[in-house]
Amino acid sequence: MKDERDALSLYSADQFALQVTPNGNTLLHVAAQFNSYHCVPAILGKCPSLLRRANTNGDTPIHVAVARLSYDVVGSLIDFAKSEDGGGAAAVRQMLRARNHDGDTPLHLAARVRGSASALFSAIGTLLTKEDPWLDHGPNKARETPLYLYVERGYNDEVLSQMLETCTPLEYGGPSGKTALHAAVIRGKDEFLDKLIEWRNDLIKEPDADGLTPLHYA
Asked: What are the structural domains of the chain?
């Protein structure tokens, strides 16, 4: 690790900025892809602008880190953004609310994690929502909100509770006019049903694009 950091110290800011892959990934994207969290401070120390630089898909380094479940890189990126060189609280908000070409924020990407990685998603999702309670929870281009995705994918309810308790405003829609409660009923997630109804009882009566309420799917 030290050898990698020493090698990075030989690059100038201009060299960092010019080193990109064919799909526009910078050295910071690559570090995020391979969870090379120890390289993040060295890269950003020379070229802070890479923090928010997007590749050809519109993904910033934190999009890549979240999608790859590189928890340590996510933490390192947030720590740098919080610093004076990184821009402080405003920089953290800008980074966490960035959208790629599909309209996905980092939280959308985290919500797509499946299976054995769900525990790590829980940690990442909790970190993101804790850092920015006003995190953008609006829909992507497929009309999916992070809350809908999280419920629809059927994970444990730790992050759901975090989102419902701390995030304002929190949107809940999905494709075809369905809500997170529709998704919970369809997926048979009783523990999600209780939390969502307690959060917003009126979701019980909210119809989807076909005029069907969650009760119709029960």
From this structure: 1-101 (1.25.40.20), 103-217 (1.25.40.20)
